[in-house]
Design a protein that fits this description.
This protein is an all-alpha fold. 91% of the residues lie in helices and 0% in strands. α1 runs antiparallel to α2 (46-77). The longest helix is centred in the N-terminal third of the chain and has 39 residues, at 3-41.
Length: 78
């Protein structure tokens, strides 16, 4: 593998990790905004909404972590 292809692999991994992080951040932001709206409309359901939000946020973070790990593994493969 030449130096150019290695440089492109590093660039692709960096972009992939960055895009994964941006996507996860946007997803968690939308999730929190929706949970705040739901809690404001129905305060009595606040605990249930909070628990559901935390579970969904953990799943989004897990997917983001997998994306970042896969991006870094692809760089080290070559």
């Amino acid at each position: 593998m030449g130096e150019w292809s290695l440089a492109l692999a590093y660039l692709a991994a960096g972009l992939g990790a960055g895009l994964t992080t941006i996507g996860a951040g946007m997803g968690i932001g939308r999730l929190a905004a929706s949970a705040m709206d739901g809690t404001a409309r129905q305060p009595e359901a606040g605990n249930a909404i909070r628990i559901t939000m935390i579970i969904a946020a953990a799943m989004i973070e897990g997917v983001a972590l997998f994306g970042i790990v896969i991006a870094f593994f692809l760089v080290n493969k070559g």
